[in-house]
Here is the input.
Amino acid sequence: MPATPGRALRPTTKVMPGQARVYNRSLVLQSLYSDGPQSRADLARVTSLTPVTIGALVSELITEGLAVELGTRSAARVGKPATLVGFEPSAAHIVSLDLSPDAVFRGAVLDLAGTVLTTAEVPRNGRIGQAAADAASGLARDLVARTDRPVLGIGVGSPGVVDSEGVVLNAPNLGWSGMPLAEVLNQALDRPVYVANDANVAALAEHSFGGAGSSSQASGVLVLTVGLGVGAGILLDGALVRGDRFAAGEIGHLIVEEPGLPCACGRSGCLERVLAVPHLRERLADLSGPERQEVLTQAGTSLGIALAPVISTLDLGEVVLTGPPDLLGGALLEAASTALRRRVLPVVGTALILRLSTLHENSILLGSAVLVLSGELGVS
Ligand SMILES: [Zn+2]
Here is the structure.
């Protein structure tokens, strides 16, 4: 699928003098990536870098194949027509893995613009622990072998709590506790590897490819992923909120119903127990018409109740739901919207956008590619 690259993620660390060249290079790349082909003079203007610096950086990018000269712009102004320079999305490929589905691991090869070129999957067959890590590694190796381009890196969206070094601290479904997944894949494949929580990765995908924040100008966006579990990724001013224990957005086990149905975490009435796909489908089995609507309305209301304090505290402008549209759209979305808006101040509720994602099942694959683009090239 062709995807429109979006805005840059805000750098969260200070630029040190020695890093200036790397930083300037990513400014130029980001401008070409999000704004399309432009002349060297345009680049100097938008980046506030000198023409000499721009000239050197563009030459370097052309040598590496990341930028190409695209001929001249028809001269609207007096003087020599300017040569346009553009980003080259096929300079390298990215391998992405989505480890969030229950029954399979999914993977893809993407170009640098986020176009999915090929996909593959392996059945999980209940594998956990090292066997699950080996299965993920095997899938990545298979995908690396399918491309004839240099592989810029491997991005992985994993369930569970993942630290900034790509260690999965805790993913009960996969039997991982302190699994150094980035290191395991890096040793097996000798490529840069980036691993992050699946809901956070989905938020990156919405930011870069799903138009989150673009129509509303919202700088605060919450992306809720509903699948086997329920999790959220939060972007504030273009930066991902990770939290003190890398568990920001883990709202699946907030209790929303008392008394409620027993949950895998040992308590009962958790949001996940109400909203996660297997539980919701089970509740809907054999129901139709008004009874089905009622269950979906209840689930939506519980979601709205759980989200309201988060939206209010952070003054978020947009909420994007990713998951099966047949469950999340319609009655559920409407009930969530009503419950949410009733609970927050009118100034927050009136402008709030609540919608379904348009990225569908590729959300985590695309977001995992953003991890690599951002980590290796400084673009997103
Ligand atoms: Zn729970």
Notes: The longest strand covers residues 104-111. The mean pLDDT is 90. The pocket of zinc ion is lined by residues 253, 263, 265, 267, 270, 272 (CB under 6 Å). The two ends are 17 Å apart (CA to CA).
